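Supplementary notes for students who missed Thursday's class. We covered one full example, reproduced here. Read the sequence, then the structure, then the short commentary at the end.
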Amino acid sequence: MRANLIILIAILAILASAAGVAGVASATGAPTAANATTLTRAPYLQLGTDHSITIRWRTDGPTDSCVSFGPSPTNLTDSTTLPDSTIEHEVLLEELNADTIYYYSIGSSTELLAGADPDHWFLTAPATGTDTPTRVWVLGDSGTADASARAVRDAYLAYTGSVHTDLWLMLGDNAYDSGTDLEYQAAVFDTYPTMLRKSVLWPTLGNHDAVSTDPDTQTGPYYDIFTLPTAGEAGGVPSQTEAYYSFDYANIHFICLESSETDLSPQGAMFTWLAQDLAGTSATGAAWIIAFWHYPPYSRGSHDSDTNWHMTKMRENAVPILEAGGVDLVLSGHSHSYERSYLIDGHYGLAVSFEPSMLVDSGDGRFASDGPYRKAPGGPVPHAGTVYMVAGSSGLTGGGSFDHPVMYTSMNSLGSVVMDFGNQELYVRFIDTGGFLRDFFSIRKSEPATDGPATVSFTPGPGLRQIRPNPFNPLTAISFEIDTSAEVQIRVFDLRGRRVADIARRWFPAGAHEVTWDGTDDHGAAVASGAYLVEMTAPGVRDLRKATLVR
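Structure (token representation):
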């Protein structure tokens, strides 16, 4: 149902583009005359929950603030108006239904400035604790406002296609060089306008963003631009500060820490709050704990975690608390590279102190080789292993020795991270500016594996059925099954995770289907003999099988 609604939105957008949206404004009760007020910062979504969301925008002159919303672009049945005149508009919509699409418009009580069309909508979070397919986009150090940042953005948009981004994270250094309002306008608002208006952004503060902030008063562009939870509005324990916070989305608990200006001592307020927050996760039905902040605890990219004070303190003081609380994945930036660890636990010292006993799983976490990292089903388990990721290359790269012993892979490549949750599985990949899958792994919360890695399915039931013949030359048939109508994508990758061919990406009815691959790439060129990975994805479904071409 969720996927069907999002596909419908795409159809509405195409129809609106072809026919225009004349009459939409009048249908919603807004005037159609030219606006006297100019929109200087387009609408962006903040602090989304399963029952509320905040919509913000900026105008060139003061007006009151009005948001209209409803089930279709021409049926905005509800509205919220704040009477105070301002240029910084911030409207909280409450009493919303969970996991529901709402269209909206923004403006004043007398003017429509944006929306009331197929392009302005949001999807509320699923009910807290539910296992709902969820896509998350992660950017680190993306604030360059240049061609590199745009290339990373465009590669992700091409990759995700019509699959909705449920939420996205920024890992700090969101606006170079000093986090000023003008720099935020260029690096965030002018670079990601379409994502901002339909998906809630959750940021953390980087050292460059901190240049223009006052940590004592929590003022400055970062704190002024973002609306972040302080009183547990989105789940978790109240932090009483926007510097660090937590929130729930479906059965995922996200924790944002602040590593640039906050007291990093073990008895400091942030780490005291962190322990309290983690202690409450089991009561909310959280199956996953994801933590993110700017300074990585492990890195040998453009910064060395052995010599950087902030990185050392986060490793020594944050990591033990998180691992005791059962954290699954930690995301950081600052080091301008991509680095991803094994599943580890208990490494709090210098790199040289890392021991094999700290490896919970020394495999690659990939379906078709060593298999996914496995953890016990249900809620968080203390010291069951954590993957640490440095993803600080969404705007620039900086090189490095790339030899930290906790890391499975490290690379000097621009890109961003995509995370899919669902059916007790987290599937993570790093996508470069060419759209290539440079790294990927999964964490599965289930009983120990009884099947081989090449036959593991993302969900029981729907998925790939057979690849026959296999080995093949020159043609093979790929059969799959889905239990509800959905958009299905079938792709082929080589064993290094590079995309070879898109075989199918279209809407299929429920039932069994078959597509073929003729051993050519996206350009029609014949590929070499060898093993390839065939991937099927659909809403809530991922399956991966090996196919061998013998010429």
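Commentary. Residues 14-33, 449-460 have pLDDT under 50 and may be disordered. The chain has eight helices and 29 strands. If anything here is unclear, bring it to office hours.
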